[in-house]
Every structure is written in structure tokens, then in C-alpha cells.
């Protein structure tokens, strides 16, 4: 099979088309023929070598990607799943494992990591759902703010931030969010109750709306210590890049490690159902042939995307 991988870490130019053996599904596993794989910021960390310690010394080639949409190609022996070959599905892939990530024509994943594609959603759009929405879902669950409480979302115009806003609203929470002037209408349309200008002093703006402080923050912009003043004493902050404080005032720091939820089938099914019901908005910034992964990573680095770029593996 063809994949997009790397043998040395570096800039986008290290990505190239490589040939790998077709993976064989084992017990409890499903093989998916990938039609689309979304490009996420975590893929750029993978490619650059910033997270190379997670390979535990395993040699390359390395294949990035955590989000795939495609068709079930084969099912491993003794696998308990209602899925059948030919079913259209989405999957979350753990790229640091030996088989690599989603940038490949074929991926093998645990059956628990695969769910049916939402109805009336194409493969590129479907591939933008699971990793970012699951990260937001896990963050909200870790914060455990009861219905009627208030959360703030930073980086609300991004993929994680947008899902965080929508999931928080579906949980019955009041949602404050930040945005640039050009993104204010977008973030409001996603469901934020109040939208303030983004920036290093955004905590002050959130405090002006909630003088006692918010119950929790989903920190998609990775403001870390800059957003802590927005949180009430004893509140919480969900962080997505491993920041560990200190926060003070009894504020709980909740790191979100999406890999830990990759086989939480019930959560994945719920996200799929919410996307099908229109509660989650799938945003595609553009679709490129998989062989143009270098250009996709360069465009992501330039910033300003509102939605995810997607690699088309029917056109490697």
C-alpha cells in the first residue's frame, strides 16, 4: 500500500509517498481502506520530531495522522463488531504505534475505534470529526461542570474550539468564547453565548462577563497561565498540550490525552450521532490529493484556516 510518511524529522518537505506492506487485521481489529484523512496540528508535531520520545526508539518510516474516513476492507478473526466489509466508517488512529497513522491507503485499528460514518456526510467532512471532537468531549468530562454552569473556550474558531463550544452548549452550559473580529460571527453561530476579542488579556474580558470567574476553561489557544485569572477559585482548566501549572487558588489542571479515549466506543458513537443530528458542525478548509501532503502542512503552518485540510487517498 501507499502511505505518506517520513524517515527523518523536519519541516513539511520530509513528507513523501512511501510503499509499505498491507497491514493485516488481528483479533478484535478492523482494516479500513482510507478515502480521506484530515490534517491536524498534532500531525505537525509528529512530523517535526517534537514528540519523538513517544516512539520509544522505534525506527522509521513514520506515518502521521489520527483521523480517517473510508470503507471497511477486512475484519480480523474473533472480532465482535456489527461492521461488515463495504461499510462506510470513520476511525481514530494512534500513529505512534508500530503500524503508524491515518495517512495511508489502509489502516488497521481496534474495532472499538471505528464507527459508521454519519448519514449524508461525505468522506472528507467525516474525517474531520473524531479526534478534535473527542478531545473536546474528554475535556468537558474532566471538568465536570454541571448543567447551568459557565465555561470559557479559547481558540474557539479552531476545530477543537468549535466542537468544545457546541458540546458545552449541548451539555446545558453557558459558553463564553474568544475570537478575532473576522471570526466573531462564526463563533457566535456555533452557539457561544458571549464572544470577546481574543488576545493575551482575554481573561480580563471573561471576568468582566462573569465577575466571580468561570467554572472551567477549555484552553484551545494554549494560553495556560494567561487564562487562569478567568477561573473561579476551585474551578478547572482542560489543557491539550500537557501544561502542568501551577495554577493556584485550588484550580484543578486537567490534561487531555486523546489517545486514552481512542477505544471508548460509546463516546465515539455519541459524537457520530451528534454530527448526524447537526449538533456538531464539520468544517473542511480544503481537500488535496494525498500526494500533496507537503503543501497541506505548509498551508496549516501559515495559519488562518477555519476548518481542517483533508488528504484524499483516492488520489494519492
UniProtKB/TrEMBL annotation:
<dbReference type="InterPro" id="IPR051603">
    <property type="entry name" value="Zinc-ADH_QOR/CCCR"/>
</dbReference>
<dbReference type="GO" id="GO:0016491">
    <property type="term" value="F:oxidoreductase activity"/>
</dbReference>
<keyword id="KW-0521">NADP</keyword>
<dbReference type="Pfam" id="PF08240">
    <property type="entry name" value="ADH_N"/>
</dbReference>
<dbReference type="InterPro" id="IPR036291">
    <property type="entry name" value="NAD(P)-bd_dom_sf"/>
</dbReference>
<protein>
    <submittedName>
        <fullName>NADPH:quinone reductase</fullName>
    </submittedName>
</protein>
<dbReference type="InterPro" id="IPR013154">
    <property type="entry name" value="ADH-like_N"/>
</dbReference>
<dbReference type="InterPro" id="IPR011032">
    <property type="entry name" value="GroES-like_sf"/>
</dbReference>
<dbReference type="Pfam" id="PF13602">
    <property type="entry name" value="ADH_zinc_N_2"/>
</dbReference>
<feature type="domain" description="Enoyl reductase (ER)">
    <location>
        <begin position="10"/>
        <end position="311"/>
    </location>
</feature>
<dbReference type="InterPro" id="IPR020843">
    <property type="entry name" value="ER"/>
</dbReference>
Amino acid at each position: 500500500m501507499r502511505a505518506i510518511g517520513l524517515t527523518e524529522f523536519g519541516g513539511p518537505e520530509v513528507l513523501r509517498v512511501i510503499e509499505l506492506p498491507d497491514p493485516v487485521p488481528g483479533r478484535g481489529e478492523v482494516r479500513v481502506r482510507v478515502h480521506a484523512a484530515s490534517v491536524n496540528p498534532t500531525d505537525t508535531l509528529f512530523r517535526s520530531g517534537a514528540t519523538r520520545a513517544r516512539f520509544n526508539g522505534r525506527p522509521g518510516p513514520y506515518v502521521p495522522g489520527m483521523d480517517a474516513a473510508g470503507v471497511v476492507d477486512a475484519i480480523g478473526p474473533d472480532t465482535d463488531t456489527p461492521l461488515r466489509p463495504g461499510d462506510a466508517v470513520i476511525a481514530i488512529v494512534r500513529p505512534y504505534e508500530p503500524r503508524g497513522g491515518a495517512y495511508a491507503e489502509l489502516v488497521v485499528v481496534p474495532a472499538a475505534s471505528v464507527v459508521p460514518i454519519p448519514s449524508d456526510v461525505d468522506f472528507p467532512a467525516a474525517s474531520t470529526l473524531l479526534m478534535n471532537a473527542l478531545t473536546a468531549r474528554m475535556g468537558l468530562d474532566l471538568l465536570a461542570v454541571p448543567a447551568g454552569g459557565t465555561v470559557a473556550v479559547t481558540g474557539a474558531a479552531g476545530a477543537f474550539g468549535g466542537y468544545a463550544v457546541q458540546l458545552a452548549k449541548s451539555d446545558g452550559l453557558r459558553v463564553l468564547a474568544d475570537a478575532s473580529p473576522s471570526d466573531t460571527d462564526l463563533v457566535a453561530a456555533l452557539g457561544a453565548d458571549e464572544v470577546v476579542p481574543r488576545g493575551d488579556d482575554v481573561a480580563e474580558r471573561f471576568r468582566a462577563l462573569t465577575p466571580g470567574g468561570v467554572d472551567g476553561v477549555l484552553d484551545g489557544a494554549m494560553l495556560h497561565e494567561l487564562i487562569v485569572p478567568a477561573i473561579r477559585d476551585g474551578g478547572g482548566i482542560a489543557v491539550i498540550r500537557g501544561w502542568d501549572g501551577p495554577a493556584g487558588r485550588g484550580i484543578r489542571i486537567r490534561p487531555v490525552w486523546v489517545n486514552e479515549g481512542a477505544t471508548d466506543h460509546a463516546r465515539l458513537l455519541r459524537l457520530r450521532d451528534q454530527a448526524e443530528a447537526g449538533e456538531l458542525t464539520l468544517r473542511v478548509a480544503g481537500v488535496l490529493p494525498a500526494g500533496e501532503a507537503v503543501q497541506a502542512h505548509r498551508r496549516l503552518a501559515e495559519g488562518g484556516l477555519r476548518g481542517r485540510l483533508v488528504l484524499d487517498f483516492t488520489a494519492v
